[in-house]
Amino acid sequence: MLRTAGIHHITAFVNNAQQNVDFHAGVLGLRLVKKTINFDAPDVYHLYFGNENGSPGTIITFFPQDNARTGEIGGGQVSITVYAIPKGSMEFWMNRLDAFEIRHETTSRFGERFLRFSDPSGLLIELVEREEGTPSAWSFNGVPVEHAIKGFGGAVLSSVSSENTMLVLERVLGLLRIGEDDGLVRFQGFGDIGHIIDVNAENASWGNPGAGTVHHIAWRARDYEEHEKWRELLVQIGFQPTQVIDRQYFNAIYFREPGGILFEIATDPPGFARDEAEDELGTHLMLPEWYEPQRDLIEQGLPKIEVREVEGI
After folding, report:
1. Alpha-carbon gap, residue 79 to 114, rounded angstroms
2. Among 13, 34, 280, 295, which has the highest number of CB atoms less than 10 A from its own CB?
3. Half-sphere exposure of 72 (CA within 13 A, CB side)
4. For residue 108, is it within any domain?
5. What is the pLDDT of residues 277-311, one digit of tens each?
6. What sections of the sequence does the record tag as coiled-coil (predicted)?
7. What range defines the domain where residue 147 resides?
8. CA separation for the pair 220, 239 (Å, rounded)
9. Which of 184, 17, 53, 173 shows the shortest CA–CA distance to 110?
10. Looking at residue 139, which CATH number applies to its domain?
11. Residue 2: inside a domain, yes or no?
């Protein structure tokens, strides 16, 4: 049976591009590992943040667009993006959010304590202390490596057809159902990062896409051969997946699961160093070869952004 290790990446809609960089790099201390464009809308950036090299399971990506319509978090979406931080780091992050005057609250489920807050566009984020996962080696703007975000702790899915979504997680993606608590059911992949998924037990009402909401969640395939097997399986069970799409840094297959959430399966290889040296990741606007003839026009239409140290958002 095919089984995914867990989350490969999560992609969301947000507003202002520089504000997005200031928050996710300047406040959260993530590394901007790739600056490219939305291949389907080249007038919009596609920004990737993660650990020092953008390892699968650490990558959050954004389509930032000024004055974008504000979305509503709800069914058919990832409702909460969860990051894993090292044990003993919760107080550091509470103090850091206070210093940036970012409102936050603590909540608990499955015996774990979560620190919940929103990014400037309204994207819901939680931090949770976990032993699992390789520590990040990236330090920026006052986030030391001993407290740096490791990658995803997981995600909370909001489904409009919960039982069917859970069947997909268990019988298609190969996640293990490990518990239920206060209206949520927990599943686990075999990896050590991005592997804990909580799903609403009762059907949710539909959300609305827009800034501050997740566009899709991607699951890991270890290589190209396994990726093809995933597509064959999806076709066999009638999910009508897309063809394999070359996203430069991974190959992708997309399908909509019955609970309304857009799922992707993405390959671990080749990674973000295929077109930039590791010490230069995220410092250049990288375009696929078919857009290179339009580089000047594309660059003129994109706002200027920079990774910079910030004192407030």
Report:
1. 14
2. 34
3. 7
4. yes
5. 999 999 999 999 999 999 999 999 999 999 999 98
6. none
7. 7-301
8. 18
9. 184
10. 3.10.180.10
11. no
